[in-house]
Amino acid sequence: MSEQILKMTRITKTYFMGEEEQVVLNNINLAIYKGDFVAILGPSGSGKSTLMNIIGCLDSSTSGEYILSNQKVDELEESELASIRNKEVGFVFQQFQLLPRLTAIQNVELPLVYACLSEKERKQRAREMLIRVGLGEKLQNRPTQLSGGQQQRVAIARAMVTEPTILLADEPTGALDQKTGHQIIELFHELHEEGKTIVMITHDIEIAKHASRIVNILDGELREEHVHV
């Protein structure tokens, strides 16, 4: 049995709009194991973005228990949450979120600045990661000098450079054309085969089918789960 790295038990998230309580997540139970490639699939408004934010320690639940790498996330202070985000989670966003004035290698280095690595080690690790995603000849290019697919590869390299426990991808092909999107999905397959744990948020069933597990979310509830053999 693979090591369990994430466990959510009866996670609920509610907001108040005036005096009216709105339930966004309702008693979510989810376990993710080392080496999983999980797609969380749901339409707009299903609660998948809120679930992603809680998984990524960007938001906290109203009730329930969340354990990530043997740490009870819901008991952590804000400074501790920031630390676990940087150490345990690598984020890949739909719109890349690269800093336009920085080169590819400088963008990938950024998370390592907070990890207090030396400049030499930061550059070496960032270079290795960009080579890994096929951008060894684009180290000094700025985002405006890269295609959408290349920018997303830089973003993936940045997410992986800290060697996080989980790679958390939010609609990673959403801003790309179909061909380029499939190239990015192929890169995720390669990373998964290397042992990376990937959680991908998507509304697209065809994209979700590339994962080894599909978790459906609808109206704030996990409805069913498909496991691909």
UniProtKB/TrEMBL annotation:
Q: Which keywords has UniProt assigned to this entry?
A: ATP-binding, Nucleotide-binding, Transport
UniProt xrefs under Gene3D superfamilies: P-loop containing nucleotide triphosphate hydrolases
Q: Which GO terms describe its molecular function?
A: ATP binding
The cross-references to Pfam families, in alphabetical order and at most eight, read:
ABC_tran
- Domain ABC transporter, by residue range, is 6-229
UniProt xrefs under CDD domains: ABC_MJ0796_LolCDE_FtsE
Family statement drawn from the similarity comment of this UniProt entry: Belongs to the ABC transporter superfamily.
Full protein name:
ABC transporter ATP-binding protein
Source organism per UniProt = Bacillus xiapuensis
